[in-house]
Design brief:
Layout lengths: L1 E11 L1 H7 L7 H16 L9 E12 L2 E6 L7 H15 L2 E4 L2 H16 L4 H4 L21 E3 H5 L10 H7 L13 H6 L3 H26 L4 H18 L2 H9 L3
Parallel strand pairs: 1-4, 4-5
Antiparallel strand pairs: 1-2, 2-3
């Protein structure tokens, strides 16, 4: 069984904004400001429609066999097409169970639009049983199938008013939470050239998601207390062995 949690970080798709609103010659920062202002006027908030997002980081935490890994796809210089292609190539290669926080409401739809934008094929991901009957009743696309568990959605019993943030649920369970960074700061950090900091932040979000998932599996009876302790220790030992500043900070903030 291969299982990985995933998370993406995005910025305004200024190329789209420039073409959509005839802003040729306008600087990226000003195009983004215009996009955000238009959305504020329209909806009362600056959060852009999902098709107007551009992916700048994708991080995953993979649990397979006796091992656990956490990393960001590509490198600091990878373009969006490479990041999105690597994500779907991983699904084609491993057919993993996916775990996310609000992945059904944000991450996956954004990845759909960006794959469409870049002409990226992902036959395993889009399989619905026509070529593989095992996918008819359990695929990535159906809200109620188990190949993708959106923890935010499931824990809220699919009721939007019951939804909670990953940060607050992680902290409630004794996990580190956001550690001073958030998705709202990604655009400013990107403008500063801080893509590595964005990738590091994305990895800590993936770790929070994975740890919440382990507690969810305990609640479901798929792990007992000793099994949960072993999984926690595997994560701790992996992060310790990687010895990276953002992962060390995560470990220090992990109270449970």
């Amino acid at each position: 069984m291969h299982c990985f949690s995933f998370d993406i970080e995005t910025i305004p798709d200024v190329e789209f904004g420039r073409r959509m609103w005839n802003l040729d010659g306008v600087a990226d920062e000003d195009v983004a400001t215009a996009m955000l202002f238009k959305q504020l006027q329209k909806s009362g908030r600056e959060f852009l429609p999902l098709h107007q997002h551009r992916v700048v980081a994708i991080s995953v935490a993979l649990r397979t066999g006796d091992s656990f890994r956490v990393w960001s796809l590509g490198d600091e210089d990878s373009d969006e097409a490479e990041l999105v292609r690597r994500f779907f190539d991983g699904i084609d290669r491993y057919t993993p169970d996916l775990v996310s926080w609000n992945g059904g409401g944000f991450d996956l739809p954004v990845l759909h639009y960006r794959a469409l934008r870049h002409g990226i094929q992902a036959p395993r991901y889009w399989e619905n049983g026509e070529s593989d009957r095992d996918f008819k009743w359990n695929n990535y696309l159906s809200r109620f199938h188990a190949r993708h568990t959106d923890l935010m959605d499931v824990l809220a019993a699919y009721q939007p008013r019951a939804s909670a943030s990953l940060d607050q649920i992680a902290v409630m369970l004794g996990f580190p939470g956001k550690l001073g960074m958030s998705g709202a700061k990604v655009w400013d950090k990107f403008l500063e050239g801080g893509i590595q900091e964005i990738r590091d932040y994305c990895e800590t979000d993936v770790l929070n998601t994975w740890l919440v998932y382990l507690r969810y599996e305990l609640m479901r009876g798929n792990l007992d207390e000793s099994g949960l302790a072993r999984e926690f220790e595997l994560v701790r030992s992996t992060l310790t062995s990687l010895d990276q500043p953002h992962l060390n900070e995560f470990l220090e903030a992990w109270a449970d």
